[in-house]
Design brief:
CATH superfamily of the largest domain: P-loop containing nucleotide triphosphate hydrolases
Helix content: 40-55%
Structural class: alpha/beta
CATH class of the largest domain: Alpha Beta
CATH architecture of the largest domain: 3-Layer(aba) Sandwich
Largest sheet: 6 strands, parallel
Number of domains: 2
Shape: globular
């Protein structure tokens, strides 16, 4: 099979970024990040923007979709999907190898499994009509259009439901969208090793100032509810700073929450496999093993 993308995926704390950068260095590539929180500026320590991982042999590797918007703005699956194809096309036009890297399952699936997402057209009349509907009526309309929702967060608020319905009613295809055939390399050292790495990394990030990072965001005017909505580090540290937990309670709860998140990530990747996605799994982020897979299977278009 001829592939037109390399994807590095896996649960949190397994070394995806560093491996993607090493591959990009060897293949004259650029990285497209598939991380739903690293898109936000000033969310550095908590989201794990390890900028040094993008430097290989003193050469900075270009990376896209990191640090592109400010809180309290929101970034969603559709925003990512539209941006991905724009950046992908740009990378290919410069005869470079696009490498998708991340752990946000929904974002990865959208690209690898070629989701049929559409551009929102400016149709104020439809939007105004929908605003007059109740939440239950909107859900009924939504499920009449979407049998199997990709993004369950569309069901969490009236505004999200309205936007999702407008998207489904639109017939404008995303500009630049092409069919993706991705060579997928997954990293999974096993649950116990992942849990230990999560523990070590959490301790390191707390020492590096992760609590201070969240405190600064609050001081800068970001509402605690918006930070809590980001989940994991930002949720639990905000709750600690607002008096819900002691520091020890926060640290313990956050550790278990990240472990649970890693488990959900693997569940998602297994679901992708059941749906026909082929993933070549490695126990560690070993570049030699990854290059063996690429050498055996990757045919440049």
């Amino acid at each position: 099979m001829s592939f037109n993308l390399i994807t590095i995926l896996g649960p949190t704390a397994v070394g995806k970024t560093k491996l993607a950068a090493e591959i990009a260095f060897e293949l004259n590539g650029e990285i497209i990040s598939a991380d739903s929180r690293q898109v936000y500026r000033k969310l550095n320590i908590g989201t794990g923007k390890d900028y040094e991982d993008y430097i290989v042999n003193d050469t900075p590797i270009p990376v896209h979709l990191i640090d592109i918007i400010d809180l309290p703005e929101e970034y969603n699956l559709f925003d990512f999907y539209k941006s991905f194809f724009h950046i992908y096309k740009s990378i290919k036009s410069r005869n470079k190898t696009p490498i998708l890297c991340g752990g946000s399952g929904l974002y990865l699936s959208a690209v690898i499994q070629n989701y049929d997402l559409k551009e929102v057209e400016n149709n104020e009349s439809i939007e105004n009509e929908l605003k007059s509907k109740s939440f239950d009526e909107l859900k009924e309309i939504y499920f009449s259009l979407v049998k199997k929702p990709h993004n369950k967060t569309d069901l969490t608020s009236k505004s999200r439901l309205i936007k999702a319905i407008v998207i489904e009613k639109s017939e404008k295809v995303i500009e630049g969208k092409i069919h993706i055939n991705s060579l997928n390399i997954g990293i999974n050292p096993g649950r116990e090793i992942v849990r230990q790495r999560i523990k070590t990394r959490l301790e390191k990030r707390l020492k590096e100032g992760m609590i201070e990072e969240v405190a600064q965001l609050i001081e800068d005017g970001i509402e605690p509810d918006r930070l809590i909505k980001l989940g994991l580090e930002y949720k639990f540290i905000t709750e600690y700073l607002t008096g819900k937990y002691t520091k020890d309670e926060m640290t313990e709860k956050l550790y278990y929450a990240i472990c649970a998140f890693a488990k959900r990530q693997m569940t998602w990747f297994r679901k992708m496999e059941r749906e026909g996605v082929n993933i070549f799994w490695l126990e560690n982020a070993d570049k030699n093993s990854a290059f063996e897979i690429i050498k055996q299977h990757y045919v440049f278009e």
